[in-house]
């Protein structure tokens, strides 16, 4: 649940070098999360990449999924990660080279993909749309570049599904409202199927996974940030926030804390 929302476009090229290091660390933690791994595996199985296919990974980050896709399409295929941040691209290129992967990476924006119409077999896009105020345009771009019969896989978080427990329902609802307010596109997960259909694609399957936070490793800075945001927005008093935080800490100490957000995946096909 430590993802950030840069704002009104896929503008990670503006992230400072020190922030890139923190982002890489966060992406590595997400790569290791059991829930993320399960939803990714389901999506890869549903997308069914084959040898010789051309794949585009939109918002490829550290390149972990670009490398996995490159392995699936083999030496006769091609997997290209589109990533606007040069620091992340450098990390992806270094890791791909160390793994002996044929994955390659290029600069590009989700709103103007560097690919011709109908030129790729498969598109993968994970946790990008939540950061975009023009997510519909990005999905239309993916639909543009995929060939007839090709598939697009979208995976994204829906921040309105944030759950914190225990606590008074109205107080915990304020924490969820703060999480929603922090994202450019907080309802990204629930919108995926409709966006794909609106772009002229046919939804083939949908999946979901609750990302559960281990009560022994709660991201307290994030919880405090959400509480502070709720106070600033007038949703909570400082006393309510402090009592809520104390209650959550007590619950974590006895194994009774629940913290989660749900991530969704949709795979769709461009009609032949």
TrEMBL record:
Q: Name one GO biological process term.
A: methylation
What InterPro entries does this protein map onto?
A: Methyltransf_25 (IPR041698), Methyltransf_Superfamily (IPR050508), SAM-dependent_MTases_sf (IPR029063)
Has UniProt tagged this entry with the keyword Transferase?
A: yes
Protein keywords:
Methyltransferase, Transferase
MF annotations from Gene Ontology: methyltransferase activity
| The Methyltransferase domain, residue ranges | 55-150
One Pfam family hit? Methyltransf_25
Q: Could you identify this protein by its name?
A: Methyltransferase domain-containing protein
Organism expressing this protein natively: Streptomyces tropicalis
């Amino acid at each position: 649940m430590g993802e950030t929302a840069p704002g009104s476009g896929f503008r990670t090229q503006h992230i400072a070098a020190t922030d890139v290091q923190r982002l890489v660390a966060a992406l590595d933690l997400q790569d290791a999360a059991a829930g993320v791994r399960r939803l990714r595996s389901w999506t890869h199985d549903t997308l069914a990449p084959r040898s010789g296919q051309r794949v585009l990974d939109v918002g490829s980050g550290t390149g972990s999924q670009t490398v996995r896709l490159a392995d699936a399409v083999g030496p006769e295929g091609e997997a290209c990660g589109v990533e606007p941040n040069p620091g992340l691209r450098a990390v992806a290129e270094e890791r791909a080279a160390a793994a002996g992967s044929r994955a390659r990476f290029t600069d590009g924006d989700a709103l103007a993909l560097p690919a011709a119409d109908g030129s790729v077999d498969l598109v993968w896009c994970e946790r990008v749309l939540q950061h975009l105020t023009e997510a519909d345009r990005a999905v239309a771009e993916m639909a543009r570049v995929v060939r007839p019969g090709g598939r697009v896989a979208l995976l994204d978080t829906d921040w309105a599904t944030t759950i914190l427990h225990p606590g008074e329902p109205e107080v915990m609802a304020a924490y969820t409202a703060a999480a929603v307010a922090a994202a450019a596109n907080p309802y990204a997960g629930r919108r995926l199927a409709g966006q794909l259909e609106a772009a002229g694609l046919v939804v083939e399957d949908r999946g979901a996974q609750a990302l559960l936070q281990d009560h022994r490793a709660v991201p307290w800075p994030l919880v405090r940030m959400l509480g502070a945001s709720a106070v600033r927005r007038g949703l909570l008093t400082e006393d309510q926030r402090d009592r809520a935080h104390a209650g959550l800490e007590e619950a974590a100490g006895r194994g009774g804390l629940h913290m989660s957000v749900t991530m969704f995946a949709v795979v769709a096909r461009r009609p032949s």
